[in-house]
Amino acid sequence: MSTSSTPVPEEPRSSNQMTISASTQELADLIDIHLGELRPQDPSWRVADSPISGRGIFATREIAPGEELFREHTLLVGPTAHRSTNLRTCTLCYRLIPGSMDSAALCPAGCGLPVCSECRDSSRHDLECKLFRKWKPLESERIEPRALRILSVVRCFFLDEAARKLLYAMQANMDRYYMKEVQRAADCFKHFPREQDMLDYFYRTICAFNTNAFEARSNVDGHEVLVRALFPLAGLLNHQCTPNAAHHFENGETIVVCATERIPAGAEITMSYAKLLWSTLARKIFLGMTKHFICKCVRCQDPTESSPLLDAPGFRPGECQCKCERERNIR
């Protein structure tokens, strides 16, 4: 199927943000369902409207430095499929698949996905395998990164009703690049969906996913791989260049967020989308190009804060006592 023959949703011209289908309280209720047994009995935080941007997370009591705020399992996850990475990684357990040829790593049923021998017969792979085989991959001997990258979005089909509502309740910024992601995936299959409602669903999911996703590091048997993971609660953490929280990953599908300094009751809990050691100019360029906003926090407006060193007046990052990789944050 050629790119030109595949319809793609038109980008609305009035705004670069899609309509959110839930109120802040409805979003908070859906997040509670999503957290399940991981939801603290008495959370130190709450979801509320934010003066920084949209919705955010706020402290309900004083939080001590190093205190764990929450941990969360991913809603959607999939390979980043960067060409610089080893694509012969199982799409389910993230183990490196033995061998040196792509053909040996591909599912023998013909879905075009790399999957290890232990995961091939799992119910989770069975659903994805049947769907990809229905679309008929054009490549049968080589791992196609464009098809692999769309897997995280395809998994939206297998969400339950509450999870789908949560997905649609999340902020979704539009970008022409996201449309191209659908087009590139379509080029990998003979019978990729052409129905407009299906493509709209794909596009809405990609916009929500790319707006909120993290790149998580998963290390299995000494093999490290990057995955794209959507964490709805962690995704609500707004950006500040002097953040009071940071995160680390227990694995590619679980995130842990901790306070890096004392957070008073009522204060918004924030994290940095950029690296803390970057200069103001570098942060502004990065945030403008990747997150489509210009940060106007105290640090960014400080005329003396022009070097990448952490010597700006008022910039006192707290020391997190957990494993948060503060300088490896990737949003």
Summarize the structure in words:
With 331 residues, this protein is an alpha+beta fold. It has helices spanning 24-35, 102-105, 123-135, 145-149, 151-154, 161-169, 176-186, 196-212, 280-290; strands spanning 45-49, 55-59, 68-73, 76-79, 214-220, 223-230, 238-239, 245-251, 254-259, 268-271. The chain has nine helices and ten strands. The longest helix is centred in the middle third of the chain and has 17 residues, at 196-212. The chain is globular and about 55 Å long.
**Major sheet characteristics:** 4 strands, mixed
| CA radius of gyration | 21 Å
Main sheet: strand order: 1-2-10-7
Count of DSSP H/I helices = 9
Helix content class: 25-40%
Broad shape: globular
Number of strands: 10
Residue stretches low in confidence (pLDDT < 50, at least 5 long) are 1-15, 307-319, 325-330
State the end-to-end distance: 33 Å
Order of helices and strands: HEEEEHHHHHHHEEEEEEH
Q: How much of the polypeptide forms β-strand, as a percent range?
A: 15-25%
Structural class: alpha+beta
**Taking all residues together, what is the mean pLDDT?**
82
Notable characteristics:
single chain, 331 residues, disordered N terminus, alpha+beta, disordered C terminus
